[in-house]
Amino acid sequence: MRILVLGATGAIGACTLQALLAEGHEVIGASRRQPEQEVAASTAPWISMDVTQLPTTAQWEAMLEGVELVVNCVGIIAEKRRGDFEILHCTMLQALSAACTKRHCALIHLSALGSASTAPTAYWASKGRGEEWLAAQDIACTILRPSLVFSPQGASSKLFLGLATLPLVLLPGANVPVQPVSVDDLAALIVALVRMRLAGETWPSRIDVAGPRKMTLAQYISLLRQAMGAPPAWLGHLPFALAQPIARVSAWLRLPMLAPEPLTMLAASQDGRLCPDNSMMCQILGRSPRDPAGFATPSLRPAAIAGWAYPALTVIIAWLWLYTAYVSWFAWPHEQSHAWLSACAIPPGLHEFVLATASITDAALGTALLTGLVRARRWHGVLWPVQIGLVAGYTLLMTVFLPQFWAHPFGPLSKNLPLLLLFCVMWRLR
């Protein structure tokens, strides 16, 4: 079949695209951004498109020329702009489904368990309205409602893998029941549905997608930890009332998986809504889905650790620069600083200027590190070689003019060596 996969660079979309290619279908990938070079080389034609800019049925009809099936993996867990949920989960879907009807094109739509127009969060409610719209259309369509999906590239999976490597975790919703499913099984289900379509079999209108067994969120994270071979850890429950202020800070830091809306969904899921009957999925697959005990591997552990270590170290290093700026100008006696500057052959008339410049530079670096981390600026990675050059320059200057600091018991210069290596590691991680 000629198949269009929307959202093909996302965790689910990318896996689905590769599974359909492996089955021998003619697949077109579509997403806002181009895939990585090694992925693009192994795929069929690619369309760079912003689905929010295709609001009308006529625009979608032109896109669907010659397409027999659309797999819609488009979805967001957090809004960048107010109204994004409505545009992506409802308005776009309505125009797409109308175009599919006119083109006699089948549709597989990825929704989510817990979705309903009356749900307590904007994400679930918009997904629910999209499902209700599709259910009322005369179109060959099936709606897949996955539970918690594991993918090494997925945002939620990265979060859980990172938590699984920490020695101490206070987790909101630790006792929430979940039924995790592998992204490979979800992709295999879509491939099986395509086979049914080719055989002329009728699709179920909805399929709940979940793993083989129910467990608590804490047990799931423990399984991931054991599979990665991470050291033992202590995992405790953080009450939702205490987690809400943390979630608001996380939203300000643009960490969508820790924001208030996902936390509200987690609290609502205490009723077991993420643990459905997966018998229809098993019947279509012809087997049981993979057990979560085999999801992770030891090779995932370094990236999982880097996932939380990079932002944590960035914050600490930013604080170090900001604190150094404050101490240099406000806390440490200027007379002592002037004596060191004189030893470095700086003319007395430039002492205050050099000291002020150094303090401002330190403060600017700390601020830039925090800004780049919070706003995900592309120039953030450039800051690490800048810091390497600055610290190396300080170290070289003091080695030449103030070599006695190498013999200082608190190691003001010798401590720069591990810092330089750390900056290099952070640079290459970025």
UniProtKB/TrEMBL annotation:
Residue spans crossing the bilayer: 308-332, 382-407, 413-429
Domain of life: Bacteria
Cross-referenced PROSITE patterns: PROKAR_LIPOPROTEIN (PS51257)
Species, as recorded: Herbaspirillum frisingense
Name of the protein in question: Uncharacterized protein YbjT (DUF2867 family)
Family matches, as Gene3D superfamilies: NAD(P)-binding Rossmann-like Domain
PANTHER family with a match to the protein in the record: NADH DEHYDROGENASE [UBIQUINONE] 1 ALPHA SUBCOMPLEX SUBUNIT 9, MITOCHONDRIAL (PTHR12126:SF11), NADH-UBIQUINONE OXIDOREDUCTASE 39 KDA SUBUNIT-RELATED (PTHR12126)
Ranges for domain NAD(P)-binding: 7-194
Keywords associated with the record: Membrane, Transmembrane, Transmembrane helix
